[in-house]
Amino acid sequence: LTPLLPHIDHRNRGMRTRLGCLSHKSDSYSDFTAILPDKPNRALKRLSTEEATRWADSFDVLLSHKYGLAAFRAFLKTEFSEENLEFWLACEDFKKTRSAAKLASKAQRIFEEFIDVQAPREVNIDFQTRELTRRNMQEPSLTCFDQAQGKVHSLMEKDSYPRFLRSKIYTDLLSQTQRRLS
Fold it and tell me: 118 in the Ramachandran plot: left (φ > 0), alpha (ψ -120 to 50) or beta?
């Protein structure tokens, strides 16, 4: 039994190291530029300070801007909560579904990925909303995720969005756009 102890201790140290790497939160401007929809330098040259400043006007202004969305996604990744944005975007895409045949399968995929208990990217919603959404799945419609999407939107707006506006990603981005003007 004694020879196993050093091996166990070594595994625990390895696990601590891996967990330490996982919990490292990078909140840098480079994390944002790495996921920009097109070439970072070209994209940032097109982003004005005025546009980036408007993201602070409202959460919906941020979500409606291509680079605002990319910056917010990068920020959520640092907080390990990008599933909220991904769910919200999946719902927005779902609402554009025109084919009745595709509606049910898309709804099922979204439910299994984000809503179901123990879903791979489960969003944080209350039991009542989860159950209402489960009932809505019996006859999927374009509005079957509305309540869950609203709760997740509200959660991001009240919780993540204010932190994003104070984040290094956002403040560095504003500094970069302002430096170009000088």
Answer: left
Using CB atoms within 10 A of its CB, is residue 149 exposed (0-12), middle (13-18) or buried (19+)?
buried
Q: Where are the beta strands (DSSP E) in the chain?
A: none
Burial classification of residue 75, based on how many CB atoms lie within 10 Å of its CB (0-12 exposed, 13-18 middle, 19 or more buried)? buried
Distance, CA of 7 to CA of 5 (rounded, Å)? 5
Domain range summary for the chain, segments of one domain joined by +: 49-179
CA distance 144 to 161: 25
CATH number assigned to the domain covering 49-179: 1.10.167.10
How far, CA to CA in Å, does 165 sit from each of 20, 54, 157?
Answer: 26, 11, 11
Predicted TM-score of the model (pTM): 0.77
Look at residues 169, 159, 17, 165 and name the one whose alpha carbon lies nearest to residue 81.
159
> Which of the 8 DSSP states describes residue 167?
S
The model's pLDDT over 56-110, given as tens digits with 9 standing for 90+, comes to 999 999 999 999 999 999 999 999 999 999 999 999 999 999 998 899 999 999 9
pLDDT at 39 over 50: no
